[in-house]
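Bumping with the actual sequence this time:
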Amino acid sequence: MRTFLAILFFALLASACHPPQRNFLKAQGHHIVNGRGDTVILRGMGLGGWMLQEGYMFRLGFLGRQYRIRACIEDLVGEERTSQFYEQWLANHTQKADIDSMAAWGFNSIRLPMHYNLYTLPVEEEPVAGEHTWLEKGFAMTDSLLEWCKANRMYLILDLHAAPGGQGNDLNISDRNPNNPSFWESEANRVKTIALWRKLAERYAEEEWIGGYDVLNETNWGFEDSTDFRGIAERTNAPLRQFLVEVTRTIREVDTNHIIFLEGNGFANNYHGIFPKWDDNLVLSFHKYGNPNVQEAIQQFLDLREEHNIPLWLGESGENSNTWFTEAIELCETNGIGWAWWQNKKMGINQPLEIKEPEGYAHLLNYWSGKSEKPAPEDALRILNEWLENLKLKNNIFHPDVVDAMFRQVHARNALPFVKHSIRAGSVVNAVDFDLGRQRVAYYDTDTASYHYTPGMNTQGNRGHSYRNDGVDIRPDSSGYHIFDIKDGEWLQYTLEIDEDGLQRLQLEVSNETDHGRIQLNINGTLLEQPISVPATEGGQHWTLIPIEIPELAKGDCVIRILAEVGGFNFKSFRFGR
């Protein structure tokens, strides 16, 4: 017993002398590491649309900025109900269930795009000029989000997306009102921003699951040349460097633990004049949209990493097809770079969660764009309330293809069923439910991604912008969805489970404006000898069934590939018979 007590005493003494290693992320050479010194690849998601609405997220690109969206809502239902709408928006959009889901999908970090007006008053509204009124709302929301992240062992990175005054000429991303002085035209705005970061750093200095501070999102400003609207050609970026140095110094007065993420001018791509480093715990954050996923696309950042011995982080990317997502993430991780995607939910298909349009939403869009009469207040309120309900995770449309592309497909070259197909006589397989997997693994399409920032590359991915985010072109019809714009050589694969013997007939449901379409069928690696001609049906919704005799299928797994030897037709489904 005495021996046991002695061992216990010395164990406790050793523990007291060597307290547990703290787990703050930090910059170490070319890598981000945790408290144990292990390299951490951040795999994150940005919560766009929560604290800061951008019009395009909700088919409101013609309005753009949040303050304009808010004014339009106020025009419909009044100031009080508009305030209630925005309170409920913040409560519904992102909840613990959202963070739990992202953790389950594979994300290990969250990037929070903050709007300053949830934390402090605008400069022009301060009761006493030069002072800072602090608003509890933003801090309380951040506290809750941090608790949700901690429960899932996820890092939370704070990102000032909308700074006082707005930090760029792209007005939408910072909710900037061009009638007021910008961030760069007003010292008071910059002072308030630095004070906000000090306040945040004081609050979270000892929080190990805060991953770091992304102190200013996507500056796009011509400092030396005002005609350099996006700040892409700026050669010195002196005001930006000065701000970054000053905000770092202020944060370090109260917080020496956390990474500070640096974003250059030109939407975080122009780093002229930003270096040399002034702190040992900095990470360079670049953004990447719509360009090819080749080494040359990120070489300038790899060179900066080498020259200044600083880790890289792809702090924002997305808004593209699954093929582009897989390739971009693979490019990053191959080069030891973590990433944060943009964004978790909005209207549309190219993110994990889709917010459904409320019934009657088109009426609001048409009124706000000057195309229809003003809806009655009670109708507008009903639409707005449904929109609020549709924000909740339980009412979102989940896109498993997007998540699969961001995680499994980065490392795997096999296909999986998109849905479970248990096949018996009479079973119908929808054409749009082809397998999950990479281009040339689960499907082949001649146009799989959007290169909207690359001259001469006029591609889109899914031209119907419906149902799935792969390269296959899908659009809705009166009874579901179908595949259209089928080009020569494109194909789709379906992994099925055959539940009964004796199936030896297929019927392909197609429509065609011409009689030039031709299909080849491959079953379990064996090509049917005769191609199948697709007859003319007047196209559109004029569907016909093409009967095909096939070798009898045995029970068990079956893989069918349907190839358009000659395209031009539409494809809706296929069904099985005896």
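The tokens above came from a reply further down the thread. The mean pLDDT is 95.
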